[in-house]
């Protein structure tokens, strides 16, 4: 629902004069280029404001009622005017909200006496509509990305995107290094560009977003499970659009280097709902691009499992299980992959620093986050560095190389 700007006294007087000079409301409305309902509304406002021949209304008040006493000839001998404080400014929907419904109190003739407008925070449907508008402006761009002339089918390039916390706000004097929406997006964007430029021309690339891609899941700016308050830069919809644009550009970078790009978004503890709509939005956008694979029917956004040659790869955010449990999940959830593999590798983030733990034959590895720390992490003494990595897998030989982009402090 849209709300019109305030109607001026001049517009009210214009409508009243038009009503007086024409026999029909339709003719009066047409003469000044407005609808009949708008004409009647403005004429009513003119009367309420005392613009139709009554005594001047006091500043800050409006005319609510007039009573006239007449003599036997019908002449007005006395007039009573009742004024009430002026009403507030026209209602505006709060940022980040949409109108949910309207309730009205009406008189016996069906005229509105009072109205209640109920709003709600914008839903995922509202957000996807906004993302679609963004994609419409970008329509066809993915098809313009020409495939590389030569790629190596024996190679797969893995690009983990771990805990970028897009939209996180950090104040340098408090934390040692500033971060905001612009800084975070530029850092991840430049990091992925550099990694893709350094990577060999593997036929297949995997962009695996391991969760906490966004710092907050909604305008509440708190973690959904614990209610931990978050420092966020920008409105929720603004942050989400920036995140989608970032992933969209990353996919296009990868399409320039690799013949096939697999994209997976996983749940984090900061943004558990975002994984689903990111997959849906990006999947819709690249639906006509056969070189991009986004499984819209895979409802499991907690864990990702994949087999490439003799490499069994898994990924999860890391907030729901320890490495020992991750290794068990790989074996239990897909025994066929387990039996066909020689090299087993589980990727996770969440803890924002690098670790490697071998659980049986499974290498469980966490990665650093690319962006600076927020006030909470800094105050609790976390001081790990910031970086992004890319890992090259060979179909029969397992991992054969990796690149790292470091982000020095300050």
Features:
alpha/beta, 15 strands, five-stranded mixed sheet, 11 helices, 410 residues, elongated, six-stranded mixed sheet, 30% helix
Tally of DSSP β-strands: 15
Per DSSP, what share of the residues sits in E-state strands of 2 or more residues? 25-35%
Dominant shape: elongated
Query: Taking all residues together, what is the mean pLDDT?
Result: 86
Strands of the largest sheet, in order across it?
A: 8-7-6-5-14-15
Name the helix and strand elements from N-terminus to C-terminus, one letter apiece.
HHHEEEEHEHHEHEHEEEHHEEEHEE
Q: If you compute it from the alpha carbons, what radius of gyration comes out, rounded to the nearest whole angstrom? A: 31 Å
Poorly predicted runs are none
What is the CA–CA distance across the termini?
A: 46 Å
Q: How many strands, what sense, and barrel or not for the largest sheet?
A: 6 strands, mixed
Estimate the helix proportion, in percent: 25-40%
What would you call the structural class? alpha/beta
Count of helical regions: 11
